[in-house]
């Protein structure tokens, strides 16, 4: 039984890695990593293969950047060729990037059963490209692996039969638990001459925050203000780097004494910074979850989140740019809720995925034989 695991962009690698390792240890199946090439810089891709001990991808589609249509179409054309030559028994897509929807569409049209890992999340904001990818992928997937109860409810309300849903938990946490010894052994903030508990980590990359000069300019001003009270380590995503240059905001930011700018960081280095931080300021989906798991205050610069459990139960809150300084005040006064860990975020999600897939593969074989 051959299983394609689709990996494309930074947030996919930490979802694919635990599943790859768990499937590779089985005798009944062979996992194959398909890298679409949506992210390609060494620090957006190779670093994660190294940190998460993934082998070289078995197939590399080398699609690269482009408009939404170019990227989605490029992945579809290239993945269809792979499926024609090396048809898998299952295609597992993860998350909500363009490559997720593209590969799901290719496989579904070839009658290859599609599993969506991290299914059912909804921001209900169709201005987000990821929400479109989530809706498309979940409309055509065969099996839905969900991280939380809200995801199951969203799927059922959209007409998905509950027997197609396996609530497996949060796979990102498996990566954290798998790499915990290395993360805990890493220098973390000392690399920036900062003490544990004496800084916040910043990541920004959503088009809604970084693509317009006024919005990004306002955010930069807020960060400069906060950095006078709490040092900030800002790991700058390539999209954001381009926009900071284009809008002539980079030099002001890099001149600020309290702001430590860095390239995108590897997984171990980044998580070592998050675990010892006072807070994270982010618009990342994954970072909202990791901070909830670690009980680190998370200030999410968005109007909505497809991960409501991180707000209802965890340490995440949605904040407007002008509320950032007050929110950091609450963190520094110890008034920010630490929250608790959602059920099933326990480092054993990959194990549950393997058991669920094995059962479904056996069902398929029984139906075929009958
Ligand atoms: C993509 C995903 C987003 C995810 C994010 C994680 C979509 C629609 N977006 O956004 O959901 O949260 O990845 O990081 O799928 N670039 C580089 N080097 C790279 C990759 C990108 O320089 O290795 C630059 C290019 O200029 C590119 C831009 O970043 O045009 C945006 O890349 P793209 O993959 O289109 O979207 P992201 O913003 O990275
Ligand atoms: N991450 C990382 N280095 C960084 C920034 C993020 O390793 O410099 C990790 C982070 O811990 C999380 C994942 O990348 O596991 C999230 O990716 P990203 O924010 O790019 O995408 P999103 O989750 O928003 O789709």
UniProtKB/TrEMBL annotation:
GO terms for molecular function: UDP-N-acetylglucosamine 2-epimerase activity. Residues 22-358 form the UDP-N-acetylglucosamine 2-epimerase domain. SUPFAM superfamilies: UDP-Glycosyltransferase/glycogen phosphorylase. CDD domains: GTB_UDP-GlcNAc_2-Epimerase. Keywords: Isomerase. Its EC number is 5.1.3.14. Transmembrane segments: none annotated. Belongs to the UDP-N-acetylglucosamine 2-epimerase family. NCBIfam families: wecB (TIGR00236). This is Non-hydrolyzing UDP-N-acetylglucosamine 2-epimerase. It comes from Steroidobacter flavus. The lineage of its organism: Bacteria, Pseudomonadati, Pseudomonadota, Gammaproteobacteria, Steroidobacterales.
